[in-house]
């Protein structure tokens, strides 16, 4: 689906000629590369979450809805998200600037998609055309998030199935997993891998144990970089790490463990261009995953709550 198709399905509320200048204005008023710098300087960015979630509600900004004690429980507290999603203040700031220019016209979903793309570019990664015209959801489901988001203990078959159920190929899945070239993960997500798995570099596993003790509940929230080589650069080092059995999560190393995706990992490890091209194509597909358009949903005034 082309960008103009999404805009057209928004019933003419805005056109691409309107929204693109709005984003350009915000960029001019931000420090260079700071679209998402508040996220990229923090552990586990929304870019990571966006790329690793084959979830039908990604393109409607449901993940931005904050919990309301006693009345609403959103996706931010879902097991794969808790302690990982950060930088909501950055998105809120961008939304405030956009609202000052063009009130209730640009959705939080479009802001999140463009910010994700620009953050990747700022970190040295590829660019891609972001289809515009999404609307925001009026609800969120922690249960759906828990069921749909791939946990760190998934094996290769599980990963291929989870992404395949949303229309992604195995190559798409491996490319989107490359978002783990930035960010960090909590000890509770990689403890089993470093203590119980055999497909891990012994020295690498040993280096993580001081920060992630074996007893459950001890140091659960301690962080380690998903890419120990270049944790703040969007490159293909994630894949070269896998070749050396230095994947932080069990699900990471499953991509290179004698299975059907080994050759794809080798290809991306040897060619940043091949990875960048596949990642950009998969992100376009991700952006088109069940968007709300026309009269569906709403354009939120504040990204963390419904109107």
Automatic annotation (TrEMBL):
It catalyses: 2 a phenolic donor + H2O2 = 2 a phenolic radical donor + 2 H2O. CDD domains: secretory_peroxidase. One of its GO terms (cellular component) is extracellular region. It is found in: Secreted. Keywords: Calcium, Disulfide bond, Glycoprotein, Heme, Hydrogen peroxide, Iron, Metal-binding, Oxidoreductase, Peroxidase, Secreted. PROSITE patterns: PEROXIDASE_1, PEROXIDASE_4. Its EC number is 1.11.1.7. Ca(2+) 1 binds at residues 60, 62, 75. The keyword Lipid biosynthesis does not apply. Heme b binds at residue 180. Gene3D superfamilies: 1.10.520.10, Peroxidase, domain 2 (1.10.420.10). It is an enzyme of class 1 (oxidoreductase). Residues 60-307 form the Plant heme peroxidase family profile domain. Binds 2 calcium ions per subunit. Binds 1 heme b (iron(II)-protoporphyrin IX) group per subunit. GO terms for biological process: hydrogen peroxide catabolic process; response to oxidative stress. Removal of H(2)O(2), oxidation of toxic reductants, biosynthesis and degradation of lignin, suberization, auxin catabolism, response to environmental stresses such as wounding, pathogen attack and oxidative stress. Belongs to the peroxidase family. Classical plant (class III) peroxidase subfamily. Belongs to the peroxidase family. Ascorbate peroxidase subfamily. This is Peroxidase.
């Amino acid at each position: 689906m082309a960008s103009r198709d999404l805009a057209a399905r928004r019933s003419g509320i805005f056109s691409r000629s309107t929204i693109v200048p709005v984003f350009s204005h915000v960029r001019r008023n931000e420090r260079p590369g700071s679209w998402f710098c508040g996220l990229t300087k923090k552990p586990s960015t929304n870019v990571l979450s966006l790329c690793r979630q084959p979830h039908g509600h990604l393109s409607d900004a449901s993940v931005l809805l904050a919990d309301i004690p006693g009345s609403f429980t959103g996706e931010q507290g879902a097991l794969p998200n808790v302690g990982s999603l950060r930088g909501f203040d950055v998105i809120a700031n961008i939304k405030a600037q956009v609202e000052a220019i063009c009130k209730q016209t640009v959705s939080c979903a479009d802001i999140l998609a463009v910010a994700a793309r620009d953050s990747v570019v700022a970190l040295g990664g590829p660019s891609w055309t972001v289809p515009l015209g999404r609307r925001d959801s009026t609800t969120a489901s922690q249960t759906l998030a828990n069921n749909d988001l791939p946990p760190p203990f998934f094996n290769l078959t599980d990963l291929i199935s989870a992404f395949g159920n949303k229309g992604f190929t195995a190559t798409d899945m491996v490319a989107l997993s490359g978002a783990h070239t930035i960010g960090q993960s909590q000890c509770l997500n990689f403890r089993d891998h470093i203590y119980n798995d055999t497909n891990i570099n012994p020295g690498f596993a040993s280096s993580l144990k001081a920060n992630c003790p074996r007893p459950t509940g001890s140091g659960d929230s301690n962080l380690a970089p998903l890419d120990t080589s270049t944790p703040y650069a969007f490159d293909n080092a994630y894949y070269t790490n896998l070749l050396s059995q230095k994947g932080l999560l069990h699900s990471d190393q499953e991509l290179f463990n004698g299975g059907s995706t080994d050759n794809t990992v080798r290809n991306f490890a040897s060619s940043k261009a091949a990875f960048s091209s596949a990642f950009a194509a998969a992100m376009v597909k991700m952006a088109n995953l069940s968007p709300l358009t026309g009269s569906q949903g709403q354009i939120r005034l504040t990204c963390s709550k419904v109107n």
